[in-house]
Design brief:
This protein is α/β, with parallel strands linked by helices. It folds into two domains: 167 residues, 3-Layer(aba) Sandwich (Rossmann fold), CATH 3.40.50.2000; 174 residues, 3-Layer(aba) Sandwich (Rossmann fold), CATH 3.40.50.2000. The strands form two sheets. The protein has a six-stranded parallel β-sheet, with helices on both faces. A six-stranded parallel β-sheet has the order 9-8-7-10-11-12, with helices on both faces. β11, α11 and β12 form a beta-alpha-beta unit. It is globular and about 60 Å long. The relative contact order is 0.12.
């Protein structure tokens, strides 16, 4: 157990603000765990969008109270619904929901809040929490956000996980290691996934994820189907994971697989349970890819316009494929990146073979970020 830093040893109540999205919340978990290790007796709360709350707390589990396998990190999960509230801002129901959440946050009497999102809305929520001290990155994602902080930290490191941990270091006033994180275990989700895999006759399998946040990051769905066919040739089944609005992508990949892949839609808790059982993950810069890395599942990461040095699979065995022609940009273009299209099915299958072979031979210790190959 890590002793608390002398300068901040009096922190008893600490609030983390990271609202969304899936991959970004997962990238925040190591910083939150480092703060938990540094202040083991502190009550730690987290403000998060309701949609992503299962990353912190299994469904049906009380969101406040003693920590458990179902809620391993936060003592209190404060779930908000900013998107829904904006659509019905002037209704009585919305007003009641906002008041209930915010009364809970204020009633916790947090000493310190740390905004690990760097957006104006997250900075405002951190300041409105009533915490006397509010930490955030000096160069926040949305520049005005830093105006709401009482203490600004210069984020260091290349990978976003390291940058988040460096902000946590400002709170702890000491150097912090990047820790392993635990995700919630939902017994019902574990049972359902076991049952579904048994019904499908699937044991050792890879998860293939054809979706991505926007079109420029999406490797063609049909190629995922071809990858599944070749994985089947050396004894690995494929499950196609997809989220809301990605049904067509999953269907296209499933058809192209010629029966080698099965599509499976999961809740977040089910996806955690499914990913824990996977031998391999294949996909782009998406939340499910970052979940696989957090669970230390080997990853073949197919990158286009986003930078794998900053957003790549962290702390797991991985091969990153990215064409040098791909520009680094977060412009949300609908068309696939041209460099991404140059990554061949053969390159992905070869990377998968290498990772599976390493696993069969006992593997090797991985560095925090491994970019095993660029294609």
């Amino acid at each position: 157990m890590i002793a608390p830093a002398e300068g901040n040893s009096n922190i008893e109540r600490l609030l983390i603000v990271r609202l969304s999205a899936m991959g970004d919340v997962i990238h925040t978990l190591p910083a939150a765990q480092a703060l938990r290790d540094t202040f083991p007796e502190a009550m730690i709360g987290w403000v998060i969008e309701e949609r992503w709350a299962e990353l912190l707390c299994a469904p049906g589990t009380a969101r406040r109270g003693p920590r458990s396998a179902q809620r391993p990190l936060a003592d209190w999960v404060h779930a908000v619904n900013l998107t829904g509230w904006r659509r019905s801002l002037f209704t009585i129901v919305t007003a009641q929901q906002i008041a209930r959440v915010w009364n809970d946050v204020r009633a916790a009497h947090y000493d310190v809040a740390v905004d690990l999102q760097g957006a104006i809305r997250s900075a405002v929520l951190a300041r409105w929490s009533g915490a006397h001290v509010v930490y955030g990155a000096a160069e926040s994602r949305e520049s005005p956000a830093s105006l709401w902080y009482t203490r600004r930290s210069v984020a260091r490191g290349v990978h976003v996980v390291e940058q988040n941990v460096s902000v946590a270091e400002a709170v702890a006033q000491r150097k912090l290691a990047v820790p392993h994180v635990e995700l919630p275990r939902d017994a019902e989700a574990e049972r359902r996934i076991e049952q579904r895999l048994a019904e499908m006759g699937i044991r050792g399998f890879a998860i293939l994820n054809p979706g991505a946040g926007w079109g420029a990051k999406r490797w063609p769905a049909e190629r995922y189907g071809r990858v599944a066919r070749q994985l089947k040739d050396f004894g690995v089944d494929a499950i196609l994971n997809y989220g809301p609005g990605e049904e067509d992508l999953a269907r296209e990949a499933e058809v192209a697989s010629e029966g080698a892949a099965r599509a499976m839609k999961c809740s977040i808790s089910e996806l955690i349970a499914l990913t824990r059982r996977a031998r391999l993950f294949v996909g782009g810069d998406t939340g499910p890819m970052h979940l696989a890395a957090a669970l230390q599942v080997p990853v073949v990461a197919i990158f286009g316009p986003t930078d794998p040095a900053r957003n790549g699979p962290y702390a797991t065995r991985s091969v990153v494929l990215r064409n040098p022609a791909s520009p680094t940009t977060h412009a949300r273009r609908a068309e696939p990146d041209e460099g991404l299209m140059e990554i061949s099915t053969e390159a992905v299958v070869d990377a998968a073979r290498r990772l599976l072979a390493e696993g069969n031979s006992g593997g090797q210790e991985c560095p925090p970020y491994s970019d095993g190959a660029h294609g």
